[in-house]
Amino acid sequence: MASAAPASDLTGWRRAPFAAGGVSHDCYEKGSGPGVVLVPEIPGITPEVLGLADHLVDAGFTVVVPSAFGTPGRRESPGYNLGVIARLCVSAEFRAFAMNARRPFADYLRALARDLAARTPGPGVGVVGMCFTGGFALAAATDDAVLAPVLAQPSVPFPISAARRADPGLSNEELDRVAARARDSGLCALGLRFSEDRLAPPDRFAALRARLGDAFEVIELDAAPGNTGGFDRSAHSVLTREVRARQGHQALAARERVVAFLRERLTPPS
């Protein structure tokens, strides 16, 4: 039985820089079919993030993974993680502590999504953000090119106060635009978290559900003591570290729901 999360490496991934708004990051691309931008969690493009990326490629998507922090392919370690977090905390591109904030990295993602949508089949693209980048997936959905935003354990702004725990991770103006798209054109978003995750507090999803209503689908995996999935109370990464490739595993089922959501929203009409 699988005892570790699915992992992969950079084999077969094409690297090219993508620049927008005065910022340039290397992006890794692979696959064919409708486009999905997969935005890594801290500390960056780890083997587990690549395991998810290759899973999406195998599911029939063109996947682009921007490398905005960390070293692509490098495994996690406590020191490595802390070093990346320290740099991100002071980065003006991400504004990790700001509330009601329009963040420059969201503009970059919107441009990347438009580029991918212009050269892949389907009506638009998906954006999957995780942990530090979770909320950026929804911020990217102010652009009409983004049809399937997925927020996995969104952790920005860092939830160090009650107000920050309830902050949705994008500006009021951006959220207004997303809510208008949900109301007028059927945009839907998918959010995932573990029940005990303090980094991605329930207040944040409650605020988003209050604005988006049924257009915001929530998957919450039970991590309370004695939970049937065997998750530790500190479980955080729904789509990567906590996944086990075995039948009936709840995080694996959540990842498959993400694949189904992307297919529903991005498959060209027949």
UniProtKB/TrEMBL annotation:
In the record, what terms sit under GO molecular function? Answer: hydrolase activity
Per its UniProt record, what Pfam families does this chain match?
DLH (PF01738)
Question: Which key words are in the record?
Answer: Hydrolase
Q: Does the keyword Lyase apply?
A: no
Give the highest taxon in the source lineage. Answer: Bacteria
Q: Where is the Dienelactone hydrolase domain?
A: 33-163
Could you tell me which Gene3D superfamilies the record lists for this protein?
alpha/beta hydrolase
Name of the protein described by the UniProt record: Dienelactone hydrolase
